[in-house]
Amino acid sequence: MVDEARLQDELGPSPRVFLVEYTNKTQTYSENIFQVDVQNLEEIRNVLKAARTLGLRVRAVGGGYNPIALCPDRGQIQLRLHDLKRFDGPRLELHEGFDKFGFRTMTVASGVSQEDMMDFFLNHKLYLPGTSKQSSLQAMDLITTPQHASFPGHKCASAYASQIRFVDSGGRLRVISDENPDAMSFMRCNLGLSGLIYDITFRLRPLIHVEVNDAFDDVESVLLDTNALKSTLAEGMATEIYWFPYNSCHFGKDWEPEDDKVWVKSILPAQSTEELTERQLDFEQTFTFYPDQFSQLTPEVLVGATRRGAMMTSRMLDCRGETTQKVTDAIYSWPEKHPFPSHSFGFSFPLDEDLDIVKDVIKMLCTQLKRFNKQNKYPINLMIQVQFSGGCESFLGPVTGNGGKALHVYLLSILGTEGWDEFTGALAADWMHVTSARPCWDTEWSTVPNMRTFLLKNMKKELTKFKTARKELEIDRHNLFMNNSIQQLLYAES
Ligand SMILES: Cc1cc2nc3c(=O)[nH]c(=O)nc-3n(C[C@H](O)[C@H](O)[C@H](O)COP(=O)(O)OP(=O)(O)OC[C@H]3O[C@@H](n4cnc5c(N)ncnc54)[C@H](O)[C@@H]3O)c2cc1C
């Protein structure tokens, strides 16, 4: 067993190593690990060498929302690259001129926060679809799981990466570009198996102004009426739908989930750039209606909280009216301070021309919600997010249909909510009948019953391509970047 002193001995004076009890941001995982902050290539190489010598494994961390399956195992090394400096350029570098496809390009060090990227975009009047404003998220999060906004016409951010530099298990700084499509398809959703990402070059879009329209309508009219949804999606550049469930539920009366109100946020290109509203609504205001003591979360309290949250969100949005914003302000945001220890679960589906998949998926969700409600169980108490995006041109990312579009449905609940496991298990079993469904890799996919069987059966071809590309790149000859979960879920033969 390696202890802190032995590892520090191997590393020499820098970087410093700390044995810490690491808890991920959603508080679903807690384990004793070695944490090391690295600032340059030499320090990365030093850590990798020590890991090879001592038989330890290494996984990087960004914002640390990582689901259990992506966390480092007990006693292994977690590398933080938040302050990493590039040896041959600034942390954020805008390149001169245009690339051969006519785009401005930038290179960003992996640990730069997405908030800093946003400031950079505003300064240069440029934009990378899929980036969020959050300071807790980092540039490489756009790649590893990978991140998307809710623009059906825009792909996930990773699809705009044209070059990635990473450090392999032998400490070599390597470069791949979209001239090698298989290598990039591996990289663009790599679950941390890519070696250590050093920097990423992205193709950017011009910054635009958008109009944001907020509306509250019921689930039936918004999500189950495919004609209405078609026009909503056709009109807007982006449509985000947030559902605080049970908001039409009254105790003692039958509840129809289809009657709940959902917040539909439509983002359209703006005609004018005159009136600029700085910020969008912060979810933190919605969640102020939740009690601090989780033990008090009786069904009555929960339902009351989600109902008041939905009502107040609707009122706050009404006061604000229609707004014109920079696109960087308008896209999705999650409270900077994670409001509660929370579960998350989600799937992506290819979007068909008629949007029947949306209806099917939401109907399955409503049926399960109703079934549980009849047993007086309220398993989903933070929110349900419905989003639409393009693909990410990767082996493991969402499969797309309808001109390259995908539907994403995320469910979020406070940790320890009664019925969560049972509910998500039942819903996943329904959703897994859609063979082209893909787990949202940034959620707790690994704990869903039968996930391994589903993945091995329905993603066999993609997993084989993923593993082959990784092997051919010879990223990890020393088996440093693996963890037990990924080994068992994606790599074990039987
Ligand atoms: C409640 C909630 C709601 C969300 N909603 C959305 C949404 O609407 N749309 C969306 O796109 N995303 C959403 N996300 C995902 C989120 O935006 C992040 O993309 C995701 O959580 C991963 O970011 P992270 O900083 O936490 O990465 P981490 O969890 O820290 O890391 C993710 C993976 O990347 C690896 N990694 C980190 N750094 C490196 C590196 N330098 N080199 C190699 N590997 C590395 C880690 O080992 C890990 O495997 C949501 C997440 C939560 C928790």
What does this structure look like?
The chain has 15 helices and 19 strands. By secondary structure, it is an alpha+beta fold. An 8-stranded antiparallel β-sheet has the order 15-12-14-13-17-18-16-19. Strands 5-6-10-8-9 form a 5-stranded antiparallel β-sheet. α11 (356-374) packs antiparallel against α12 (420-431). The longest helix is centred in the middle third of the chain and has 22 residues, at 299-320. The chain is globular. Flavin-adenine dinucleotide binds next to β3, α4, β10, β17 and β18.
Strand percentage:
15-25%
CATH topology of the largest domain: Vanillyl-alcohol Oxidase, Chain A, domain 3
Small molecules (ligands, ions, cofactors) in the structure:
flavin-adenine dinucleotide
Q: What is the topology, as strand order, of the major beta sheet?
A: 15-12-14-13-17-18-16-19
Distance between the termini: 29 Å
User: How many discrete structural domains?
Assistant: 3
Using DSSP, what is the number of strands? 19
Organism: Owenia fusiformis
Protein name: FAD-binding PCMH-type domain-containing protein
GO molecular function: FAD binding; oxidoreductase activity, acting on the CH-OH group of donors, oxygen as acceptor
InterPro entries: FAD-bd_PCMH, FAD-bd_PCMH-like_sf, FAD-bd_PCMH_sub2, FAD_lactone_oxidase-like
